[in-house]
Design brief:
Elements lengths: L8 E10 L2 E5 L7 E5 L3 H20 L3 E5 L3 H5 L9 E8 L3
Length: 96
């Protein structure tokens, strides 16, 4: 996971919805798997950066900061009429 540089690394977080449950995973962050019902969607969305940072530390030994590229309100504005399956997060190496 190369997070060096001014802009950091952009990763994709996939959002799937089935039977009222929302699940977030990422092909670039092995082990990322968060799930919630619609009532907890904003809460779980806010937890994604913390989960990404914890997994980067555990898997790669890197202290990183993950930040939403799009705010929750911007993201949620399209739900549920137009489901947005991919969200982008920027992660930066805190040691850089």
């Amino acid at each position: 996971m190369d997070t060096r540089g001014e802009r950091g690394m952009i990763i994709d977080v996939m959002h799937e919805c089935a039977d009222g449950w929302h699940t977030f995973t990422s092909p670039q962050v092995p082990g990322l798997f968060l799930t919630a019902e619609m009532a907890q969607l904003e809460e779980i969305y806010a937890e994604i950066p913390t989960a990404i940072a914890a997994l980067a530390k555990a898997d790669f030994g890197k202290d990183v900061k993950a930040e939403l590229v799009k705010s929750y309100s911007d993201y949620a504005a399209g739900l549920p009429e137009t489901h947005q399956p991919v969200t982008h997060y920027e992660i930066r190496d805190l040691a850089a």
